């Protein structure tokens, strides 16, 4: 039986490779690897990975990244584009005054800018033991909200979200400073006011998997998805959750496990009043929020043209929008690639609804890319990348990716 | 090259085994989840914050449930068809009784199979009391609700049971902890102080920062002689004999972890076929067996490390199922058999298929507050305790 299954697997694999091969896209683009720079994280030899843990601070035009050894050490980095310099500020356990029983496996959340030029992020257990050991001496205490003051270079630990729960993602209302968060593994939506130290648990919104991405609109409303991949909005003016009636678009046949994971990345284009979303089922969506109520959205199609029945397969946990209004993302990771053993950098024109491959990278050089909506004032876009040269658990090297489609960055 | 293909083949066969080792959930064949709660939908569903399934029973094909709402919102009664795997009715308690927060105790049945009784807790700070509610489920799963009144003025019905032979209710009220009897035929209520904590006990509770909802017994049970058992301060089990209208305190205390007696109280009882009665202590989640003849208990230990066993229900062949653990931890389903002991079955994760989710999604239960066994004995039903709670159903195992 196993042999039959394996032969069928091989046939399926061969079929899918053929399917990818026939859509070869021209690589003769003006964009070259001179438009991309891979920046190493200094002073952290055991650095393993970065997750959603990257963000941009418009107050000083700098990019911040949380880099982890995926066990108990999270380095906090700042990249200054003007000087082209990257600096390790320290490790969260030291900067945040954490005791060993308050260990943190990683920073999974993005890094978001607050109203006073400060930035916020949260921490994560990052280890399966967090779900099972609970109050055991080696158990996970819970994830923290943290604030970094760029002026004083001080990290403030704002306390825990929920006991035993990681905080997978945060957002901030840049007007009020209120922080939104999603917990793991129970997918509780949290609203935290650091000024008043008030934390409101709005309850569980997810299924068996926790969607990893929160995002806000121009008014400071925050969005998440429920288990039907319907947008759920925390409406600031009413303090209530508003649920979309319809689900976000999905390809026919998209498996349930993809639906419940919802959105994997977003990028905002205020000029177009659009927030672009990419789903775990590989759909691109232009979402047009409104101050009250849910707003409208438009299905932009798939992230890349693939064989019929497999449109939902490509994995895109990253998205940026250029000054030219085009979307940029890297496809690949978690075993889902549209080129054999290669990740691809895509340029997607929302007007034409067309995806072009700009660059291809062997997965030994670029395995997986994360990050949403990180662009500096000069139009440079940033992603958190990592490579897995030897495919072992320890064979993972993270680095910062700087990309500009309109000028060389090397 | 040949070796690497062989190794790849071996790896391919073992990868699923390795990957599943940590994340094996309890999802036996025939298990399913019913989507009972969903905001903003045309489907029949319960809205957010009003659907925590605090009480549950079964009438034929229909699961019948009562919910706890968030403060300021009215709780709901619902029914769900097991065969159709969908909600069949949702009714607002507010239409019948105003000012209630929770339908949390009871679901004891009358002699006629489709009539049930539940007790309610009022909205806090309103001065309104809890009520006894009669429910009837018709053949289409529709619920008919009748208010039987407020047994103790200004107090909530925290724990309640019903003796169908005597047509009499027995309950503990909140916040005082008084015990009441209410006769359905005569309408006569009697209130007793013997279960109320003493001043000294209240001081102890205060020093442990415990409120009445933390220390009052959550459940009552009847033995074959019609005597009622519950818990009272501190860490004691009491027995009320309606024949003599007298209370006694059992010699055996609730099983405890030293120093944590103040938190001892009954979390749930389950009456098995043959008058075997099991109880659980909320403080540390110990299961025990009550011998009603000798009026003694045997401590059977803990199924998991966390406190609480909020719900238990009979399985087949002498096995019971229970839910151990609660917030801030996660619920584990467990089973107990007198000969085989405990099994920790972990978080249940069942497939949910619903209109718009035809491909099915997995639903993992983290917080579970209630359980019931189908009248056929073939299904075990669990009710979630969430902002958006769903029903989890699995076939009762037929183990020897």
Explain what the structure shows:
The complex is a heterodimer of chains A (410) and B (400). By secondary structure, chain A is mainly β. Chain A contains 4 helices and 28 strands. Chain A has helices at residues 2-21, 92-95, 129-132, 256-259; strands spanning 36-40, 54-57, 62-68, 74-80, 85-91, 112-113, 119-122, 144-149, 154-160, 166-172, 179-184, 188-193, 198-204, 215-216, 222-225, 231-235, 240-243, 263-269, 274-279, 283-288, 296-302, 318-321, 327-331, 342-349, 354-362, 368-372, 381-387, 397-403. In chain A, the strands form 6 sheets. An 8-stranded mixed sheet of chain A has the order 1-28-27-26-22-23-24-25, with no helix packed on it. In chain A, 52% of the residues are buried. Mean pLDDT of chain A is 92; it is low at 8-28. Chain B is mainly β. Chain B has one domain: 7 Propeller (Methylamine Dehydrogenase, Chain H). Chain B is built from 3 helices and 30 strands. Chain B has helices at 2-22, 199-207, 212-215, and strands at 32-34, 52-59, 62-68, 76-81, 86-92, 100-109, 115-122, 132-137, 143-147, 156-163, 168-174, 179-183, 189-192, 221-222, 228-232, 236-241, 246-249, 266-272, 276-281, 286-291, 296-301, 309-314, 320-324, 332-337, 341-346, 349-354, 357-364, 368-373, 379-384, 391-395. Chains A and B meet through helix 1, strand 13, strand 17 and helix 4 of A and helix 1 and strand 27 of B.
Over the alpha carbons, how many angstroms does the gyration radius of chain A reach? 20 Å
For the secondary structure, the number of strands of chain A is: 28
- Determine the N-to-C terminus distance of chain B: 51 Å
- Termini separation of chain A: 53 Å
Radius of gyration of chain B: 22 Å
Give me the side-by-side strand order of the main sheet of chain A. Answer: 1-28-27-26-22-23-24-25
* Main sheet specs of chain B: 4 strands, antiparallel
Identify the biggest protein-protein contact and residues per side: A-B, 37 and 31 residues
């Amino acid at each position: 039986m196993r042999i039959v299954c394996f032969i069928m697997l091989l046939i399926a694999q061969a079929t899918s490779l053929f399917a990818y091969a026939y859509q070869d896209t021209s690589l003769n683009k003006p964009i070259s690897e001179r438009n991309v720079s891979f920046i190493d994280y200094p002073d952290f030899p055991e650095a393993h990975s970065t997750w959603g843990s990257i963000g941009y601070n418009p107050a000083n035009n700098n990019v911040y990244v949380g880099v982890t050894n995926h066990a108990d050490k999270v380095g906090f980095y700042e990249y200054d584009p003007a000087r082209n310099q990257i600096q390790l500020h320290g490790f969260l356990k030291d900067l945040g005054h954490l005791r060993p029983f308050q260990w943190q496996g990683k920073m999974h959340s993005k890094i978001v800018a607050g109203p006073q030029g400060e930035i916020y992020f949260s921490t994560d257990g990052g280890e399966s033991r967090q779900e099972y050991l609970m109050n055991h001496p080696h158990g996970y205490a819970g994830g923290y909200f943290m604030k970094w003051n760029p002026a004083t270079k001080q990290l403030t630990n704002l306390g825990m979200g929920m006991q035993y729960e990681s905080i997978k993602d945060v957002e901030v209302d840049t007007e009020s400073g209120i922080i939104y968060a999603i917990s793991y593994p129970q997918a509780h939506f949290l609203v935290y006011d650091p000024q008043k130290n008030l934390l409101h648990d709005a309850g569980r919104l997810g299924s068996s998997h926790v969607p990893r991405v929160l995002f806000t609109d121009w008014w400071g409303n925050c969005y998440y998805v429920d288990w039907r991949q319907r947008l759920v909005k925390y409406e600031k003016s009413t303090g209530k959750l508003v649920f979309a009636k319809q689900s976000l678009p999905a390809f026919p046949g998209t498996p349930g496990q993809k639906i419940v994971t919802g959105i994997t990345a977003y990028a905002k284009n205020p000029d177009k009043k659009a927030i672009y979303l990419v789903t775990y089922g590989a759909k691109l969506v232009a979402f047009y929020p409104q101050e009250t109520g849910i707003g409208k959205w438009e299905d932009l199609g798939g992230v890349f043209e693939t064989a019929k029945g497999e449109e939902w397969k490509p994995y895109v946990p990253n998205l940026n929008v250029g000054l030219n209004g085009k979307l940029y993302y890297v496809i690949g990771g978690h075993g889902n690639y549209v080129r054999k053993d290669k990740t691809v950098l895509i340029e997607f024109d929302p007007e034409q609804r067309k995806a072009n491959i700009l660059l291809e990278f062997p997965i030994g050089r670029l395995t997986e890319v994360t990050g949403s909506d990180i662009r500096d004032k000069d139009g440079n876009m940033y992603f958190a990348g990592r490579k897995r040269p030897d495919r072992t658990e320890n064979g993972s090297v993270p680095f910062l990716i700087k990309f500009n489609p309109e000028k060389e960055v090397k | 090259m040949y070796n690497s293909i062989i190794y790849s083949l071996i790896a391919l066969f073992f990868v699923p085994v390795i990957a599943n080792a940590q994340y094996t959930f309890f999802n036996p064949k025939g298990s399913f989840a019913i989507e009972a709660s969903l905001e903003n939908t045309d489907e029949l569903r319960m809205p957010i914050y009003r659907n925590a399934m605090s009480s549950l029973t079964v009438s034929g094909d229909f699961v019948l449930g009562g919910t706890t709402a968030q403060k300021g919102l009215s709780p709901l009664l619902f029914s769900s068809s097991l065969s159709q795997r969908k909600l069949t009715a949702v009714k607002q308690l507010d239409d019948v009784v105003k000012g209630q927060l929770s339908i949390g105790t009871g679901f004891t049945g009358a002699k006629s199979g489709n009539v049930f009784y539940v007790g309610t807790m009022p909205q806090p700070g309103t001065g309104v009391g809890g009520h006894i509610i009669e429910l009837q489920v018709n053949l289409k799963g529709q619920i008919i609700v009748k208010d039987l009144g407020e047994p103790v003025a200004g107090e909530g019905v925290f724990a309640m049971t019903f003796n169908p032979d005597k047509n009499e209710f027995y309950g503990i009220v909140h916040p005082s902890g008084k015990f009441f009897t209410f006769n359905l035929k005569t309408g006569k209520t009697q209130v007793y102080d013997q279960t109320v904590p003493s001043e000294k006990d209240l001081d102890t509770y205060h020093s442990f920062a415990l409120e009445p909802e933390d220390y009052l017994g959550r459940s009552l049970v009847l033995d074959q002689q019609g005597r009622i058992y519950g818990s009272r301060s501190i860490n004691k089990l009491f027995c009320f004999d309606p024949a003599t209208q007298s209370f006694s305190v059992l010699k055996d205390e609730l099983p405890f972890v030293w120093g944590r007696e103040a938190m001892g109280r009954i979390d749930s009882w389950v009456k098995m076929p043959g008058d075997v009665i099991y109880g659980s202590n909320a403080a540390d989640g110990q299961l025990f067996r009550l011998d009603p003849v000798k009026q003694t208990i045997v401590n059977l230990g803990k199924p998991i490390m966390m406190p609480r066993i909020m719900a238990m229900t009979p399985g087949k062949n002498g096995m019971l199922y229970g839910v151990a653990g609660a917030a801030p931890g996660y619920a584990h389903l467990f089973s107990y058999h007198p000969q085989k002991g405990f099994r920790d079955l972990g978080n249940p994760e069942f497939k949910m298929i619903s209109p718009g989710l035809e491909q099915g999604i997995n639903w993992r239960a983290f917080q579970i507050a209630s359980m019931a066994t189908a009248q056929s004995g073939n299904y075990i039903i669990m009710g979630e305790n969430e902002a958006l709670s769903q029903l989890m159903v699995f076939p009762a195992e037929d183990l020897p």
